[in-house]
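Feature request, filed as a ticket because there's no other form

It would be nice if the structure record came with a short human-readable summary line next to the tokens. Right now we just get the raw output. Example of a typical job, pasted below so the devs can see what we mean:
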Amino acid sequence: MRVVRWLAPVLIGLVIAWAGVNDKGRVIVAATSLLALWIVPALITAVSSAAGTRVYARDPSALLDDAQRVFTTTTTTPSTAVPPLLVAVAVATTGLLIRRQLAAPDSRKQAR
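Raw output as currently delivered:
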């Protein structure tokens, strides 16, 4: 189960590195991917928490309040929100640097 937690950040970082951030569109897609990495797990946690609570089954407003509380807590708690983002950014940065290094010899050959 521990591996599954890190699968999405690593994959997002690899995709950002593979696609690059050479133009405005790719930067927007990379930022949107990181935003989704932050929001989607919190949303799933909030919905799962609210749906799994029988106490609020007859009180929809309390159910929504609980889901909102869980969502807010999950998105603003650094210990849960930040590590996946850091992993994705680290993988993307490493991949982009590797791409740059691999492309550098080609540009030097063409300059000669």
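Something like this underneath would help us a lot:
The first helix runs from residue 2 to 19.
The chain has a mean pLDDT of 90.
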